[in-house]
Fold this protein.
Amino acid sequence: MDTVDTIEPGVSKSRRRERGGGREGRRSAGQAFAPPHRATPYIVRNIPAYDVLGEESLLKIEATADRLLAEVGIEFRDDPAALELWKAAGAQVEGLLVRFEPGMLREILKSAPASFTQHARNPANNVEIGGRNVVFAPAYGSPFVMDLDKGRRYGTIEDFRNFIKLAQSSPWLHHSGGTICEPVDVPVNKRHLDMVYAHLKYSDRCFMGSVTAESRAEESIDMARIVFGRDFVDRNCVILGNVNVNSPLVWDGTMTNVLRAYARANQATVVVPFILGGAMGPVTTAGAIAQALAETMAGCALTQLERKGAPVIFGNFLSSMSLRSGSPTFGTPEPAIGSMVIGQLARRLNLPLRCAGSFSNSKLPDAQAMNEGTMSMLSAVHCGANFILHSAGFLDGLLSMSYEKFVMDADFCGALHSYLAGVVVDDNSLALDAFREVGVGKHFLGCAHTMENYQTAFWDSTIADNEPFEKWDTAGRIDAATRANARWKQMLGDYQAPPMDVATDEALIEYTERTKASQPDAWY
């Protein structure tokens, strides 16, 4: 893909030059640091993924997954067509239960692409998913939103549009996401139309469609066809659908019908088991990983039976729980290290990976939120994840989408751009001329090498306060969450909608209005 060849890992030099001159640069400009409008459309990582298990342990996990598939099996409920596909492929089908011979699913998965391009309305924002590429997308699925001004409340379509605008405005996010929050002020059977329209109208980045019913998935794809053209959509991925296993070992018809709808249209499905250790899976990490491998392989393979060669993403969401209270816990170490193993298994299948994100169970954008989010987010980048959903805004165990945490997380994503760029080793970075100029016992602040590199040397946060204590104290002791509150308001105030062809916009509006009018409102 041409885009890959023109992107420097991490932040490109041309974009870095737009980034101001650190603290002194901000002082001389007399204003807050403003990041570039766009860092890169996605990251090409320049550090390796981290392998935590050796071959023997990986083979044991794979063998356990094979035994689960062959001896226990997986139920496929309310989707007779899926059962027929499995029968035709040679699986053992008894009622709703499907069993698979060892190696069968791996053979089917050989037709799935190792990487693919998701096309955006603006081609400059196309993303490559797979290989060494990393795509950050906002959190997904919260019924509530929260901010420091209004507290926790049900999400609305206005909140939904706001978060799309914030994602579009962030140089460190690459994707518009999907159900960033549930707009509960819109009927359940019609809100997907407003959500997809909002993604297409207020962002020109890649996005995700509805997965709550097969018809809603198909309508999401239809709206994408209005923008991209039917022939283009049939040949290229322009929309993702994120589907979940009903763990343990059950695929329900809602999800498999949606999965097959996206695959049938040659659009990508993200196949994700959500395993809460001790509830939907065993408390031991290795057992949960084996279960996840079995469930995910089955879902990914079903996309290939529906349409051979359709893009699919191997997804995973390991989580733990408090065994004292039964409450889910997020951002904990066991799922984080488990994600590392998931990354190894996905690479052995040669499939793109979605794993982890900035998870937290905190109820505020506080130290707990960022501690847990950092633990989980680092596991995502080190496990080799290609598509990182939940990169920004996840709070309250995913029940709430936080405005403040959204911009705090997006800021951390900026740091990860530099982190994933690795360490450049060349004549300039080794700085031998600087040592010759400065000599011994002197500082480097004013030397030629520093002046040539100071604008690009270090990542610069839009949220962190790096001033001396006295200056911070005099300014009112403002904490990070309060700074983030001001930041998201500034971003929304500065937001400018990307241009859209008038005829395309009118066609989208006509489609949504006609589709809504064809059915009564349903609030459940």
